[in-house]
């Protein structure tokens, strides 16, 4: 995979986002846009929600209507890539229980991100987990699910790691702030937890991976309401403000408005400032491993 976004899910999302913004800047209603392309207000809504792609002629007419016909070639190229591409998880036969519909957008965003910043409050980030640690996390959250489903969820998480961290060309910049209590929790038992800490020590040697530990001594902090992930995208997707993803037991939530993202980015900057410096991370993780 190249560093350019290749996920149809992500490309459709960006085309939808940009066309909606261009229409609003031109002060044109959805109804008027629909009439201009011999379509409907509902059809424009589906395009702007990412449910469907505009046809080539529709796309040209919309860009002309919005006053930016010079961007046609760029948009047409993205549209063609969105039509011809294939999201990586299509190669797996995951059920809706293992891979719910709402999570597919996150997989696309994650696989295309130029940088991924996260605050991890209870457990180590999924992209950094070992297989035994992942198994223990999944069983701890849902102890009643069948073993076969546990293994399929583990397979999905390991596939994410291969797709994101093993990206050909330029992998994303990964920056995780982990609360100290997450590292001291013996998830899966002491042996599994120590193996996970050793894995973190290996990962932080990579130049594109940064891990900071937020000490328990900090007390209340800007991440106290829970974990979150901020994803930023390559310059090719110009004007994209990025996405903040927050997971819950029921579903995931996506925050994409600039003012919403600004709140989370300010919280992340504060957490990074309060956490131990990256160069202190190896010694601190090694000490925690000995104290387990």
From TrEMBL:
<dbReference type="InterPro" id="IPR012319">
    <property type="entry name" value="FPG_cat"/>
</dbReference>
<dbReference type="InterPro" id="IPR043917">
    <property type="entry name" value="DUF5753"/>
</dbReference>
<dbReference type="GO" id="GO:0006284">
    <property type="term" value="P:base-excision repair"/>
</dbReference>
<dbReference type="GO" id="GO:0019104">
    <property type="term" value="F:DNA N-glycosylase activity"/>
</dbReference>
<dbReference type="InterPro" id="IPR010982">
    <property type="entry name" value="Lambda_DNA-bd_dom_sf"/>
</dbReference>
<dbReference type="GO" id="GO:0008270">
    <property type="term" value="F:zinc ion binding"/>
</dbReference>
<dbReference type="GO" id="GO:0003677">
    <property type="term" value="F:DNA binding"/>
</dbReference>
<dbReference type="Pfam" id="PF19054">
    <property type="entry name" value="DUF5753"/>
</dbReference>
<dbReference type="GO" id="GO:0003906">
    <property type="term" value="F:DNA-(apurinic or apyrimidinic site) endonuclease activity"/>
</dbReference>
<feature type="domain" description="Formamidopyrimidine-DNA glycosylase catalytic">
    <location>
        <begin position="143"/>
        <end position="252"/>
    </location>
</feature>
<feature type="domain" description="HTH cro/C1-type">
    <location>
        <begin position="19"/>
        <end position="74"/>
    </location>
</feature>
<protein>
    <submittedName>
        <fullName>Helix-turn-helix domain-containing protein</fullName>
    </submittedName>
</protein>
<dbReference type="Pfam" id="PF13560">
    <property type="entry name" value="HTH_31"/>
</dbReference>
<dbReference type="InterPro" id="IPR001387">
    <property type="entry name" value="Cro/C1-type_HTH"/>
</dbReference>
